[in-house]
Amino acid sequence: MITTISFDADGTLWDFPSVMQEALTVTDLQQTRDEVARTLRGNKVSLEYIRLKAFEQTLSNLGHNDPELASHLTTFYLGVFAYPPETSTLFRGDMQKPP
Asked: Which long-range contacts (CB under 8 A, 24 or more apart) does 76-80 make?
């Protein structure tokens, strides 16, 4: 659970360059998602499941095994950034939109 958010516009509280070197990037998250998807290839799984497993793996890579947090992150991500439900049919190999 996020308990605090700090803004430091002038760099007096945080060493921003050092923090950014330790931060996850979108590329890091995408690579983990792609690795998880590859390991699940051939299994009938939803995009939501792939996202959940990718968040679990990301947290594990950071030394923070927390399935509840991974579930929360998945729910938040899918609620904010997810594609419309009809795109999930692409993962079944069906390139046509459902009726």
From this structure: 77/51, 78/48, 78/51
Confidence band for 8, pLDDT divided at 50, 70 and 90: confident
Q: pTM of this prediction?
A: 0.66
More confident residue, 25 or 56: 56
Contacts of 36 (CB under 8 A, 6+ apart): 50, 53, 54, 57
How far is residue 47's CA from residue 15's CA, in Å, rounded to a whole number?
37
Q: What is the C-alpha separation between 75 and 73, in angstroms, rounded?
A: 5
Q: Please, is 88 exposed, middle or buried when counting C-beta atoms within 10 Å of its C-beta (0-12, 13-18, 19+)?
A: middle
State the amino acid at position 56 in one-letter form.
E
CA–CA dist 50, 90 (Å, integer): 14
